[in-house]
Specification:
Shape of chain B: globular
Low-confidence stretches of chain A: none
Largest sheet of chain A: 7 strands, mixed
Shape of chain A: globular
Order of helices and strands of chain A: EEEEEEEEEEE
Largest sheet of chain B: 6 strands, mixed
Oligomer: heterodimer
Mean pLDDT of chain A: 95
Number of helices of chain B: 0
């Protein structure tokens, strides 16, 4: 059964960037989508964006457009999420999740997320 | 884009049934049968319990069921057990290759 192994906790200064990795152990990213979801302390889940690793096609929530970059390296079964211009409100646990998608009429439909990483805590503080 | 609307909290006694609603718009929940539900225990990653409105992944209890009417999806948990106490989130495809979560509902088993 595939597991998603995320990189370790990060402490960053405001204005800097953070890059979190997510490696598929015991499987590959092929045929799946990878989503990035964050959860601020005491708050709900928030979908940031996703990528179809086999195509290298990424999609972003409007809120994060221009500030987040999601990439994937199929050769290492690893996905990445880079968030720039960090502010204190970006302090959160960041999860990667493997999901299923459909491709119809040139549109990608993210369906659901069935395998989750354990999360990476990112703290933004001066 | 605003989050899907869920009640902040629901509660029920053991063996009872509860329903959690998830209200969106005609641009998300109302337009696609692509609603999923996740259970999250404190300090843990979310777990998929319902997908495509009413399908259960292998290994998920039959006590969990989903439905949808118009712009509102619902999660029903029957035969409440203490172990069901957790946070529950709905999620819907929201167009333009994006997903949207609900604000989450805290379930308390009395």
């Amino acid at each position: 059964q595939v597991q998603l192994v995320q990189s370790g906790a990060e402490v960053k200064k405001p204005g800097s960037s953070v890059k979190v990795s997510c490696k598929a152990s015991g499987g590959t990213l092929s045929s799946f989508a990878i989503s990035w979801v964050r959860q601020a302390p005491g708050q709900g889940l928030e979908w940031m964006g996703g990528i179809i690793p086999s195509l290298g096609t990424a999609h972003y929530a409007q809120k994060f457009q221009g500030r987040v970059t999601i990439t994937a390296d199929e050769s290492t079964s690893t996905a990445y999420m880079e968030l720039s211009s960090l502010r204190s409100e970006d302090t959160a646990v960041y999860y990667c999740a493997r999901g299923t998608y459909n491709n119809y009429a040139f549109m990608f439909y993210y369906l659901y997320m069935d395998v989750w990483g354990k999360g990476t805590t990112v703290t933004v503080s001066s | 884009q605003s989050a899907l609307t869920q009640p902040a909290s629901v509660s029920g006694s053991p063996a009872q049934s509860i329903t959690i609603s998830c209200t969106g718009t005609s641009s998300d929940v109302g337009s696609y049968n692509l609603v999923s539900w996740y259970q999250q225990n404190p300090g843990k990653a979310p777990k998929l319990i319902i997908y495509e409105v009413n399908k259960r992944p292998s290994g998920v209890s039959h006590r969990f069921s989903g439905s949808k009417s118009g712009n509102t999806a619902s999660l029903t948990i029957s035969g409440l057990q203490a172990e069901d106490e957790a946070d529950y989130y709905c999620c819907s495809y929201a167009g333009r290759s994006t997903l949207m979560f609900g604000g989450g509902t805290k379930l308390t088993v009395l």
